[in-house]
């Protein structure tokens, strides 16, 4: 399954095709895909995901079958270095997915898969407040066995949601979507990382001023240093080094339509 041709430029960041879209363009594009039932796998690229893709070729190959949106200051710095300008908007899933749901007047079925059960339930309740026109359904938490997996896939197929939010962490969520989701299961499977934890309130968001300054990564590091120090303290410089190497080695694929 190959993603539909996107009538917008993209930029290659460390070999990953990232759509170069404004927020309204991305919302319009995905809304059109929902209306037309065009099966499209969606993910987001930030510095961490890019580093994982560099060391996991299977994950990198899977990402190139997704519509990938730009997430965070790291990929903006990469775009400036490689193409002379940042991406048009920061389309991090934590803000973008609620915006996408709010933008749709037509009632949709939105399924949630991942996180702890309690967090998924609270996230569903929060999404129902944000976009009450939609039907929000928790399919399962993110902790299931291989034996339970066929039943979960079947349940998604029976529900046939317009949007499936998969919150299992990188790269598990993208690999799971690639292996199990097909047009008969849902229309837009979206890999959303920690979105359900943020929506549930179990994971706090950075203050607005830090988000405006693009320092949300620093806030996350401060509240979860034991888990995230390697991702940010080691990972961010490594990502920038890899981008610099791409720049010195050539344009990295160019900006295309």
UniProtKB/TrEMBL annotation:
UniProt GO molecular function: hexosyltransferase activity
InterPro entries from the UniProt entry: WecG_TagA_CpsF
Entry keyword set: Glycosyltransferase, Transferase
Keyword NADP in the entry? The reply is: no
The record, for NCBIfam families, names:
wecG_tagA_cpsF (TIGR00696)
Q: What is this protein called?
A: WecB/TagA/CpsF family glycosyltransferase
């Amino acid at each position: 399954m190959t993603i539909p041709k996107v009538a917008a430029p993209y930029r290659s960041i460390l070999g990953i095709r990232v759509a170069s879209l404004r927020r309204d363009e991305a919302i319009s594009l995905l809304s059109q895909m929902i209306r037309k039932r065009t099966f499209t796998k969606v993910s987001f690229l930030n510095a961490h995901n890019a580093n994982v893709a560099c060391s996991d070729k299977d994950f990198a190959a899977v990402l190139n079958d997704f519509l990938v949106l730009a997430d965070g200051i790291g990929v903006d710095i990469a775009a400036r270095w490689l193409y002379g300008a940042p991406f048009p908007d920061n389309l991090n899933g934590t803000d973008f997915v609620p915006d996408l749901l709010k933008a749709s007047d037509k009632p949709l079925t939105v399924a949630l898969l991942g996180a702890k059960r309690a967090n998924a339930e609270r996230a569903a309740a929060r999404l129902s407040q944000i976009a009450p026109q939609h039907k929000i359904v928790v399919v399962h938490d993110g902790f299931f066995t291989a034996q339970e997996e066929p039943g979960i896939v079947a349940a998604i197929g029976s529900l046939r949601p317009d949007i499936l939010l998969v919150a299992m962490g990188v790269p598990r969520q993208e690999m799971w979507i690639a292996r199990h989701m097909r047009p008969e299961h849902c229309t837009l499977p979206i890999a959303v990382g920690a979105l359900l934890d943020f929506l549930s309130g179990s994971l706090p968001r950075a203050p607005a001023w830090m988000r405006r300054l693009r320092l949300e990564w620093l806030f996350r590091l401060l509240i979860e240093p034991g888990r995230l120090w390697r991702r940010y303290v080691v990972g961010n410089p490594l990502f920038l080094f890899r981008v610099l190497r791409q720049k010195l080695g050539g344009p990295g694929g160019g900006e295309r339509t």
